[in-house]
Amino acid sequence: MPESAPGSSSELFDVLVIGAGPTGMSCAIEARRAGFRAVLVDKGCLCNSLFHYPSHMTFFTTSELLEIGDVPFPSPNPKPSRDEALEYYRKVAEHYRLDVRAYQRVESVTGADLDFEVCTRDTFDRPNLYRSRKIVVATGYYDLPNRMNIPGEDLPKVFHYYNDPHPYYGMDVLVVGGKNSAAIAALELWRHGARVTLVHRGPSMHRHVKYWILPDIENRIRSGQIQAFFESSVARIDPDTVTLETPAGARVLSNQFVFAMTGYRPDFEFLESLGVRIEGEFRCPACDPRSLESNAPGIYLAGVIIAGDRTNEIFIENGRFHGRQIAEDLQQRLSVPAQFARA
Q1: Which candidate among 192, 273, 311, 326 keeps its CA 20 to 30 Å from the CA of 174?
Q2: Cβ(230)–Cβ(200) under 8 Å?
Q3: Cα–Cα distance between 250 and 51 in angstroms, integer?
Q4: What is the pLDDT of residues 204-223, one digit of tens each?
Q5: Whether the Cβ atoms of residue 269 and residue 255 lie closer than 8 Å to each other
Q6: How many C-beta atoms lie closer than 10 Å to residue 45's C-beta?
């Protein structure tokens, strides 16, 4: 089973991976295969972002493209479900006996290459201290939604994540956005008895909506089963209404719940606190494309965070290979302690 002992200043690791999702797991697996002692820390559970995906979600890709560590991912379905993926990654963690320190939020990273100190706090606000020669940041982007920055966005009826349609039966629900997550939420809510309105700033549903979802949402809109406002935005949210800005002027609609499916972003502030430079129009962190080491010596980047704001470029399917790139660089730069070397 994955280890879960609390950290202490006496524990020294070769590689500390921040983020225990599929990409972070892959990084830890490849580091261990190369003979290094690796630990993963995460503010949530193993594969925390996947756990918070919609409960009935099906991946857009096949199980083979989600595999890590050369462990097969058998699935009876053409595209696996969220629950199948969570079970698979648990089995991978068990297979490799990954050292996962869950529910520990990283508060600070100090020191320098070959001698980092990582301070975390657990759910009871107790501190833990780890020492590591190298750091890998694989924090993804799902935890930081893009906010609309409008009055009422912080009301308890507003959500930036969609999970299950049942609680919204018979309710007036607004879905904000025009990509896959917005289309899926709108369709599921409507099919489970919600009165759904969709608002999107573009002229139509986004071109990235999957080909088997797009005609479904367009047909529901065309038939009037889902009301849609394009080239429109939400101006304010009140307890019983929402106000939209539309080409025809302001519209006030009855509303009980809002799902703002406006996308997510990497934690740029955390990266900058590590000394990682954010560059260019798309705010990409500076890193060597071969080794994936950032401009901050000893700190590597893995997964979607490498693409900055272009969060539709890197997924599990290609981010899972970043661990191998990083491990190859570690083998050139670090000696393997004798007690951790493979026989």
Answers
A1: 311
A2: yes
A3: 38
A4: 999 889 999 999 999 999 99
A5: no
A6: 15
- Its pTM stands at 0.88
Residue 21 is encoded by which pair of tokens?
A: 């999702």
In 3D space, the residue among 42, 47, 45, 46 whose CA is nearest the CA of residue 128 turns out to be 42
Q: Strands 195-200 and 227-230, how do they pair?
A: parallel
Question: What is the secondary structure of 227-266 as a DSSP string?
Answer: EEEES-EEEEE-SSEEEEEETTEEEEEE-SEEEE---B--
The structural domains of the chain, ordered by start, are 12-143+264-340 (3.50.50.60), 158-260 (3.50.50.60)
For the purposes of burial, counting CB atoms within 10 Å of the CB of 218, is it exposed (0-12), middle (13-18) or buried (19 or more)?
Answer: middle
Q: Could you give the 3-state DSSP secondary structure of residue 142?
A: coil
What is the C-alpha separation between 167 and 238, in angstroms, rounded?
20
pLDDT-above-90 percentage for the chain: 83
Which tokens hold the place of 308? 């900055």
Residues in the chain: 343
Asked if 143 and 160 count as a contact pair (C-beta separation under 8 A), the reply is no
d(CA 130, CA 38): 11
70 CB-near residues (< 8 Å, 6+ apart): none
End-to-end CA distance of the chain: 22
Q: Where are the beta strands (DSSP E) in 49-148?
A: 100-101, 104-112, 115-122, 127-137
Tell me which amino acid residue 30 is: E
* Span 175-187, pLDDT tens digits: 999 999 999 999 9
Q: Which two tokens stand for residue 127?
A: 């501190």
Task: Return left, alpha or beta for 35; rule: phi > 0 is left, psi -120 to 50 is alpha, else beta.
Answer: left
CB of 295 within 8 A of CB of 288? no
Quote the tokens at residue 86. Answer: 């969570």
